[in-house]
Design goal:
Blueprint lengths: L1 H5 L4 H45 L4 H11 L4 E7 L2 E9 L5 E9 L4
Antiparallel strand pairs: 1-2, 2-3
């Protein structure tokens, strides 16, 4: 009976050593996805605010600063499109990915 129990010794440790990296990779991908989504939402809000600022007649540097204050490292492009002022921005996220957002506001609007 004793030799039979001895055959399985250490198998739990071996299985754990194989499963642990897979679990860690899944957790890291999940956390990275949530961080990128959070950055995307913050960038979209900042772009919407910058579009409203530009539409009211604020300077382009003020609108760029509004986005940079919320999302560090964002590149901002402001362009008029007919009666609209549109702001597009992109920023680096985790693992070399980039998130982008665009917002427009009616020129001269409140």
């Amino acid at each position: 009976m004793r030799s039979r129990l001895g055959d399985d010794r250490g198998s739990v440790v071996a299985e754990f050593a194989v499963a642990l990296p897979a679990v860690l990779v899944v957790l890291l991908v999940g956390v990275g996805t949530l961080a990128a989504a959070s950055r995307q939402v913050r960038l979209q809000d900042a772009v919407a605010d910058a579009a409203r600022l530009s539409a009211r007649g604020e300077t382009a540097s003020r609108a760029r600063d509004a986005v940079a204050a919320v999302v560090a490292g964002a590149s901002v492009d402001i362009s008029p499109r007919g009666d609209l002022v549109c702001v597009a921005a992109s920023a680096p996220a985790l693992l070399g990915l980039r998130v982008s957002a665009e917002g427009c506001a009616l020129a001269g609007g409140l």
